[in-house]
Amino acid sequence: MLAIMTDDVRFFYDCATLLREKGVPFLAIPVDGEIPSTVTLVLTTRGEAPGIDFLAVVADDDAGRGVKSAMARMNGGERFVQVICAFDPGPRPGFAVFGDGALLEAGVLDSVKDCKSAVEAVLAYADAEGYLIRIGHQDVTNRNRMINLLWPLGITVEVVREDKTTPRSHTPNADAAVAIGRKQGESLHWPPAVKPTSGELREVQRQSRISSSGEATISRELARAVARGELSMVEALERTTRRKKDDDEDEDVGLM
Fold it and tell me: Which of 67, 188, 200, 210 has a Cα-to-Cα distance from 32 of 20 to 30 A?
């Protein structure tokens, strides 16, 4: 049995909500309360942890991270042999985490740049003897961007063939990440180069017109920087607008 042991009302509410969503039973105990013998793990805040006399305590001021850490501890004991982080590459990557084969979490990230922080969060809540990253082979540009972002973590990266990994469901990206995490891939020895295709560059330019309400189209050079993750679309459009303004000013000076 898991116990939330805290006098922090907000922390308790957030933890209780997450645990109820997951269907996990728990006890609510004040910090100075007695811990029943049925409790195997206590979840609390960092500030309250030193005052709790119990062997197994998960302390975190972030309720989401604390609940994930508690679930990992309860599912896998003190330490996993291997934790796998799996990604279905794309503009909004699917993400799944396994601890010794058991699915710990699955969802969708807001953007490619969030993949590194997602893995860092897993490293914080799931202690393991070894870690592995698996990523689907499709959407090459976004895949390679993600690999380059993840490479500095020093974790082995495998590229997995995505054949039949995207099921027809309401959460295809997350489900595909789960399927990718369960398949063995090919290990990489160095990070790949990010080389957007002509079609991808045209798509980025099209998106720039949509983002600017038809007022601007970024150059192919800027589109390549956006596709490689070196610039955001907002930054590329700002540069385009600034260049156009400078060109207009130069033309006005030439007419004088």
Answer: 67
